[in-house]
Amino acid sequence: MTKELVQALKILADETRLNLVKLLLTHDLCVGALAKRLAVSEAAVSQHLKQLREAGLVKGEKRGYWTHYTVEKEKLNELAGLLRGLTELPVCGEGLCIKKLDNKIDCYQEEKKMCDCKCQHPEKLKGKPGDCSLKQIKECHGDEKGHPCGEIKEKEKGA
Description:
- The chain is mostly helical.
- The protein has two domains: 2-86, Arc Repressor Mutant, subunit A; 98-153, no CATH class.
- 53% of the residues lie in helices and 9% in strands.
- The protein has nine helices and three strands.
- It has helices at residues 2-12, 15-26, 31-38, 42-54, 73-86, 107-110, 114-117, 134-141, 148-158, and strands at residues 29-30, 58-63, 66-71.
- It has a three-stranded antiparallel beta sheet with strand order 1-3-2.
- α3 packs across α4.
């Protein structure tokens, strides 16, 4: 479904195609009427409609000599639902190391170098990773023991 959503969004990202959809939501129109309303050539409108049809966003219906186009409202509502669904994705409660995003890297092995790759909660850090306070390290990583920044801070505390 993601591939379909991306394809539809690419098609609707074109201003002319989006304007065609907006017009067709209010009226069933033929290529000639659409061309006049949008001040573009009939050939251009036909090409845009072809892409919208292939994505299942509009359909044409023969009425006498002309084909009138309408928006597939169910399809548009389906796409709107998919977009709405993106806003409902749960936030990861445990944070996410940037290296975890790269499945070629074993994050377990990289945990000790967490600050080298990026903090799980970069918004909580100030300055360079080596400048982390023990409180910041604990907030971001749960425990400062064994953490590169924590080891540095422990040495500083002991000195």
